[in-house]
Amino acid sequence: MLKIALRSLRRRWMTQVGTFVAVALGVALMTVMGLGLAASAALPPGADVVGLVSLLGTAGGVSSFVSVFVVASTFSYAVAQRRRELGLLRLAGSTPGQLRRLVMAEAAAVGLAGAAAGCVLGAAGAPLMARWTVAQGLAPASYVIGDQSWPLHTAFWTGLLVALSGACAASRRAGRVGPLEALREAATDERPMTPGRWAAGGGLLLCALTFACWRLGSDPGDLLKRKTYTWQPMLLISACGLLAPVLVRPVVRLLMWLPSRLTSYAGRLVRANASAGIRRTAAVAAPVLVMVALTGSLLGATATLTGAKTVEARTRTAADYVLTGDRLPRSPEIPGATALAVADTSLTVLEEGFVKVRSQASAVDPAALAAVSRLPVVAGSVADLDDGGIIVTEEWWQHRVGDRVPLWLADGTRTDLRVVAVMKTGTGDNGAYVTPRNAPGAKVSRIEVKAPPTAAASLREAASRHGATLRTTSDWIADTHPRTNRFTVLGFVLVLGIALLYTAIALANTLLMATSDRSGELRLLRLAGATRTQVLAVTTAESLLAAAVGALLGTAVTAFNLTAMGAALSTLGVDAPIAVPWLPMTAVTTVCALLAALSTLLPAAHALRRGPAAAR
User: Fold this and answer.
1) CA 133 – CA 466 distance, rounded (Å)
2) Between 57 and 599, residue with greater pLDDT
3) By C-alpha distance, which of 175, 8, 166, 164 is closest to 74?
4) Residues contacting 566, CB < 8 A, separation 6+
């Protein structure tokens, strides 16, 4: 079987180019991330190191997911294309086990070559990545790639495992091909879904739905965390990818309902071909689904969370103006206005009797807080705050009015404070409030001022006296609240760049495989009377339809993820709109559509050069 596998690779090398490139790039990226993580371990501990490790870990995880998705999809479609060939091998006496070993041997050969090439590319690219992170300010100047070898070994064997695991399902399908498949001429897919695929796809879909509902009921704030909204879309993407043969047909009917009625034959022909070749349509739609879903879910989640924090910042204060500076007084006096000085501090809370948790807090004057703030209080009263009290949120372990909270102040002083009011958790930025006596050494960061327009002169005088900047509350919020973490932004740029690269590889490879395999079918259309232009137009329309199916499924995944985030915000008491990144999603869909059209037109035009007589 090894000789057959090698001959098959030589004969069908075009079908394996995309898989080789996908494995090679996946291993290269894993090598870069591994070498980067190994180099970051040698840096002194600090916030930059934490952010850098998070960025590299996220990018490495997403690249591994997308590479497995692409490789599995490619192998699955490649086996579906070779039903007659595998059937002939069965007629020649091959057993199901031999066919499985044939597919796995091909995967091993491609995986070994791709993993080796990826290690070479990764080792060359890691220093470039290190210099880029230093230039972007994501790492200190001392960040350099060392001579560790374990990332190379890890990436190589992981890449080979990815190739073998991606081909595993395809090999089982190959083993189920019967001898009579050699006699089949029809290109229709009568049984695109296997019991294993039903179980895997349904299980992942159930897991995604169950997780979202469970977190909404138990801890809605968890759905707002970056780790959650980064990996949660992968569950739905995998589920939709596995269930694509079931989902594609109704989506095709929906998208082609109007075109099939407005055209004489072309629309019906495109719909019929897309529905008959369900595996081909699903294989083309899968990478588009990945790209649109990741773009919409990741960018939409960050935009929604950013908007929610902005809304929250606006609603929890009644101030008209904000003073900021380095020399602000603790007890400001502004004639004709009420001023609230806010000093930032930290508290270390003892939760469950033995766990120490560090929390951010604000030191404020109780009377001014009651007059200027509009805190989302659900129990107790802000006016009850005193030197022995504290205002907490519902996420604190002890959050009932009257509870005694054991904690340590910023200077290490041990004390117990009584809960006088409880706020909604919100997006997690509400923090806690104490009096200045419980924040020794805290420096005033801003002064929120509630004042009528007639107090403008007093405000300008106070700003000049203390060397402060005077802004309206709206301008202050726009300038300072909120700012998306720079590591998050660059990490998502890296992640989406990886996904777009893999999408291009998967689309081009799948369409080249599909179109070159349909050369006889295309020439038969010419024999039936269709012109060369009409055949190219219909074939391209099929590819664009498959891309549209993937975009629609990706939009559905995005809608579910953002709806879950919106429900979590509503549960937490934040009335903020859901931000859907329509422009990036449209741009990604357009790129995929152009790539699909180009990857179809070129091989189709090449196949039609021989003329219609070749179909005989």
Assistant:
1) 39
2) 599
3) 166
4) 304, 576, 578
Rounded to 10 degrees, the C-alpha dihedral 525/526/528/531 comes to 110
Helix runs in 316-372, H state only:
366-372
Q: Average pLDDT in the 219-241 region?
A: 84
> 198 — alpha (psi -120 to 50), left (phi > 0) or beta?
alpha
Cα separation, 552 vs 615, whole angstroms: 35
How high is the mean pLDDT of the chain? 82
Can you tell me which residue has the tokens 């309902």? 257
Q: Alpha-carbon distance 466 to 475, whole Å?
A: 20
Label residue 343 by pLDDT band (50, 70, 90): very high
Tokens of 231: 């990996």
Quote the CA–CA distance of 567 and 571 in Å, as a whole number: 6
From the number of C-beta atoms within 10 Å of its C-beta (0-12, 13-18, 19+), residue 466 rates as middle
Report the alpha-carbon distance of residue 471 to residue 323 in Å, rounded.
7
Structure tokens at 365: 């004057």
* DSSP string for 258-269: THHHHSSSHHHH
**Residues 346, 490: Cα–Cα separation, whole Å:** 29
Under 8 Å between Cβ of 543 and 596 = yes
Work out the average pLDDT over 517-527: 76
Does pLDDT of 421 surpass 90? yes
Q: Where are the domains of the chain?
A: 1-185, 188-313+480-616, 326-467
Phi/psi at 356 (5° precision) = -95, 125
Q: Residue 136 pLDDT > 80, yes or no?
A: no
Whether residue 282 contacts residue 244, with contact meaning beta carbons closer than 8 Å, is answered with: yes
**200-224: per-residue pLDDT in tens?**
888 989 999 999 999 888 888 888 8
Half-sphere exposure of 449 (CA within 13 A, CB side): 29
Which tokens is 469 given?
């900047």
Q: Six-digit token pair at 591?
A: 């790129």
| Cα within 13 Å of Cα(434), Cβ side | 24
Whether the predicted pLDDT of 184 surpasses 60: no
Residue-wise pLDDT for 345-378, tens only, equals 989 887 766 677 888 899 999 999 999 998 989 9
Q: To 5 degrees, how large is the angle CA 14–CA 18–CA 24?
A: 125
Contacts of 4 (CB under 8 A, 6+ apart): 89, 102
Instruction: Determine which of 140-144, 163-167, 168-172, 253-257 has the lowest per-residue pLDDT on average.
Output: 168-172
Tell me whether residue 137 is exposed, middle or buried, using C-beta atoms within 10 angstroms of its C-beta: 0 to 12, 13 to 18, 19 or more: exposed
